Amino acid sequence: MDTEQLEAARRARIISEALPFIRDLNGHTIVIKYGGAAQTSPELQAAVMGDIALLHYVGIRPVVVHGGGPEVSNMSRQLGIEPKFIDGMRVTDEATMRVTEMVLGQIGKNIAADLSAKGARAVGLSGKDGGLLRAEKFQGEHDWGLVGEIESVDRGIIETLQTGGFVPVVTPVALGKDGETFNVNADLAASAIAQAVKASKLLLLTDVAGVYRDFSDKSSLIPQMTRNEAKDLIASGAVSTGMIPKITCCIDAVAGGVERAHIVDGRAPHSLLIELFTDTGCGTMITE
Fold it and tell me: For residue 215, what are the domain limits?
């Protein structure tokens, strides 16, 4: 065979090897939290959109929950509002909430348009639409303003869209009991949605290769662990503070009925396909 035929044969073999993974996930819902480098790099963004469209076409039912913190900060500064954070969480007053809702809503619509351009019909919706996400004010040692924690998810809205052949793209803002709007962390929103829709998988796209036993030792990457092992890792102090919320979201998802939760290296092209359709994966998987 010539070079082109060899390359075609290699591609065919890769597709064939993915068949068992595709078969196992066919008809199942997976929730993807889209953010980080995968959202800001045009090349990675195009790859992720193509991957999600492919998942849709092979019979997997993706739900996308997106972030957009850097874009919110940039727009806030343009409007003369200096972003403020406490312990990594955005302090959200009413003006900041209006900016957040505007910017995140536009991002969601853009993602839906990008997916639709790939042939996967998608609908961008706010967590407020139809009461999809309901929240109460986040309680902690500080006052973060209009930052919420999710009380409930109306899975019927997502299931209706899926039944109609659409990919739901969710903007993580939520409705309060008094009609107020809350800013919700996208990882937390993705975890809550995954539990509500009984997803088979939750995948959090991040800017790291996965979870390490010792971050200074790159050979200590953990490809798979149970949720109890993940808890022990947090308790030991081995995990950096920035990774703790993501691991906690995965622990909560698995405890809430999600079969597998994955922290995926979103900096790698086609990381979703590598994590879902290969034995090696592209990050860390957390199981029961």
Answer: 26-287
